[in-house]
Structure formats: structure tokens, C-alpha cells
Design a protein that fits this description.
single chain, 210 residues, alpha/beta, Rossmann fold, 2 domains, six-stranded mixed sheet, 34% helix, binds flavin mononucleotide, FMN_Rdtase-like_dom, Flavoprotein-like_sf, FMN
Length: 210
Amino acid sequence: MKIIGFSAGGVGRESNVDRMVKAILDKSGHDVEFVKLTELNFSGCKGCVQLCARPQVCQLADDAQPYYQKVKEADAVVIGTPVYFGDITSTAWSFIERFFGYRHVDIPIAGKPFVTVVGGAMTLGPAVEHLHKMLGAFEVNLIDTVRFESKVPPCFKCGRHKECEIGGLYMMLGDAAKELTITKEMFTRWEDDSATVDAIDAAAEKLKKI
Ligand SMILES: Cc1cc2nc3c(=O)[nH]c(=O)nc-3n(C[C@H](O)[C@H](O)[C@H](O)COP(=O)(O)O)c2cc1C
């Protein structure tokens, strides 16, 4: 069995979403491949549907293109995204938008098991719903979803939170945000949250059984 996993986690460090996707893949016990979408250069669908209609796989030539055939051939897919602006990231959106290549006359990925992973500072619901709505267009079999509320706003990394009254940290704490010293321990990790660890194990267990 071959499982391919994609993460739209942030670059520059190993993100929670990256590590969640990797953990599900590794614990599944299958032959796996991990792809970090934010390290690829690619765009969303450009509407050249006359090109993908017959092969039923996206033909847009860029870094993402080889992975559409791999999704078609995989026995299951894991896809993860952080929450940006209350929604899935544009990276994840662009990647899934090009699944449109599959959607002509019939849907070769219909029924394929998918696990979704969403990580965000606080409000994950709308992003999960949107992700599932997009995947629903391809009639995939959504076997599980793992969510992790990191409580990590981008302000923890930006270095300017003490002078800022518009960022997520200020929204969360008000003026107290300006006094806050950011420490390594404040970058919460899903591995320290037992509910998320259990959810990762449960998702991997479901993949084990495919
Ligand atoms: C541009 C940007 C916008 C963000 N917007 C939100 C948001 O609307 N809601 C939220 O809960 N978190 C938001 N975040 C925080 C990330 O979702 C959060 O830090 C997440 O844990 C990052 O995941 P990663 O470590 O896997 O990259 C935003 C982060 C960035 C960089």
C-alpha cells in the first residue's frame, strides 16, 4: 500500500502540521511519501481544462504537477494545512484546486481514503469545513480529521509584538501582549497534547486497515 501525505505547514522550521502529517504516515506502517507543499513553486488552477479533460490529471507544468499522478495512484492521501485568515492556506487551496483535472466525465479518485489535518492558533472550524467542501467535489472517502489548536499566533515569530496593536497576540491578550517575553516553551507542540496524540494514533490506525 502506498500513502502520500502533503503539508502546507510554514517554512523555516518544522511546523506542527508537517509533523502531524509525517506522524500519521509513519504510524500507518505503509510505504509512504511526504511532500512539503510550501517548498514547491506552483500556482492554482489556470483553467486550461481542455488539457486535463482526457488524461484526467492536471497538466500545468510546475513543481506540483508530478504529484497529481501520484495522488491518482496512491492507495490513500493525507493532506494538512495551517489556518490563515480563518481559512485553509492559499497553498493548500491552490493544490486542491488542481484536483479539478480528475473531475471530467468520472472521478478517478472517488472513494479514495483521505485523512485531513488542520492546525491553527485558535479557530479551526471554518477551515476544516472548507477543506472538506473542496475535497467533497472529488467524492473522496474522508476517513478522519485531526485538528490541533496551537495557540501560536504568527506574532510569536515576527519579533515586533511589543509595538503592535493589530496582531493576533494583541487580539488575544490586549495590552498584556506588549509585556510578553516570547519563550521557546510558548511554541506549543502537538506531541505534548494527549488528545491530539490520540487523534493522530486513531487516524494512523484507520490507514493501517485500508
Ligand atoms: C498569514 C497568517 C495568518 C494566520 N491566520 C490565522 C487565523 O486566522 N486563525 C488562526 O487560528 N491562526 C492563524 N495563524 C496562525 C497559524 O495558523 C498557526 O500559527 C499554526 O499553528 C501554524 O501552523 P504550522 O506551525 O504548521 O505552520 C496565521 C498565521 C499566518 C502566518
